[in-house]
Amino acid sequence: MTAQLISGSEIARQIREELKEETARLKEKFDTAPGLVTILVGQNPASMSYVTAKQKASKELGFHSVQENQPETITEADLLALIDRYNRDPKIHGILVQLPLPKHINETKVLYAIDPKKDVDGFHPVNVGKMMIGEADYLPCTPAGIQQLLIRSGVKTDGAEVVVVGRSNIVGKPILNILLQKQKGANATVTICHTGTKDIAFHTRRADILIVAAGKPKAVTAEMVKEGAVVIDVGVNRIGMTPEGKAKLCGDVDFDAVKEKASLITPVPGGVGPMTITMLMLNTVKAAKIAAGAQ
Fold first, then answer.
1. Residue 252 main-chain phi, psi, to 5 deg
2. Do 31-117 and 141-274 have matching folds?
3. What superfamily in CATH does domain 141-274 come from?
4. What contacts 243, CB < 8 A, 6 or more positions away?
5. Does the annotation mark 54 as catalytic?
6. Distance in angstroms (rounded) separating the CA atoms of residues 160 and 189
7. Taking Cα atoms as reference points, which of 273, 165, 161 lies closest to residue 219?
8. pLDDT of 45-92, one tens digit each?
9. What is the largest CA-CA distance in the chain?
10. What is the pLDDT of residues 190-203, one digit of tens each?
11. What residue spans define the domains of the chain?
């Protein structure tokens, strides 16, 4: 058996086409465009790259797009004041603060300062709590993208044994909560493994759906995967450079070996990655619809 690839790039493209139509309807019916502000502090090259990609996506969809570039020396008080200004701006529906922040700024305090109604990253405690009880307005972007990959690839989650490797607040814990809800694209039996798990392979071999966010290259080998499993590889690891000078990437799964056992698998790159920014765009459209009374 050779696994069929789940193309995050293609599924993300489909969702963006749907969002483009929803944005046009919002403009026509409510005379409003989804508004997203991206706040970048300092000049971290990776952060600048992410912010550029998010701004590009929002402009392509017809959003009201604002980018705030702030110096690394900005005080915490000034950053909080900037967030408060956008909390009160009716043209802005989503506020994104690009992490990491400089050491003199308390990241938790900054993220908690964002109005939960504009927290399109889904990290505010109010939104985390609503996610846990199955009433989320905005799901965290990467886990939401994983769920959409499963739904749009026709993967049956109802009653499935799902094993998640990794317990981060960004991926592991949220995807556990999302997939155990009694809802479409969920209702699974979910096990989460982490650094304290005694025998990870014992659990991964039971998985109908295996989601790996371990942060370690090729942490999951073919021997750890059940025949016919669906494998979602969240990891992005730099393992060197190509002759052209580009970063060589691999996931947390030994792709070449595991694809011979899995039924479906996400590649790295081109799997989960393209979905993350797309789900940020989806959350921003949803925020605009809520603000307009359209949802």
1. -90, 0
2. yes
3. NAD(P)-binding Rossmann-like Domain (3.40.50.720)
4. none
5. yes
6. 6
7. 165
8. 888 988 999 999 999 999 999 999 999 999 999 999 999 999 999 999
9. 57
10. 999 999 999 999 99
11. 31-117, 141-274
Q: At what angle do helices 8-30 and 141-152 cross, to 10 degrees?
A: 110
Give dist(CA 95, CA 200) in Å, integer.
38
Distance CA 83, CA 90 (A): 13
Active-site entry in 55, 118, 119, 121 = 121
User: What is the distance between the alpha carbons of residues 127 and 144, in angstroms, rounded to a whole number?
Assistant: 13
List residues bridging with 212 in a β-sheet: 165, 233
pTM reported for the whole predicted model: 0.95
Q: What pLDDT, in 10s, does the model give residues 122-146? A: 999 999 999 999 999 999 999 999 9
Beta strands in 45-101 (DSSP E): 64-70, 94-97
| Residue 232 in this model has a pLDDT that exceeds 80 | yes
Q: Strand locations in 166-227, DSSP E?
A: 189-193, 209-212
Q: Identify the active-site residue in 98, 147, 148, 181.
A: 98
- For residue 218, indicate whether it is catalytic: no
Distance CA 155, CA 264 (A): 9
Query: Does 55 participate in catalysis according to the annotation?
Result: no
What per-residue confidence (pLDDT) applies to 244? 84
Q: Domain 31-117 sits in which CATH superfamily?
A: Leucine Dehydrogenase, chain A, domain 1 (3.40.50.10860)
Beta-sheet strand order (sheet of 4-5): 4-5, 264-265, 230-233, 209-212, 161-165, 189-193
Q: Which residues, including other chains, have CB under 8 Å from residue 271's CB and lie 6 or more apart? A: 6, 7, 8, 149, 232, 233, 251
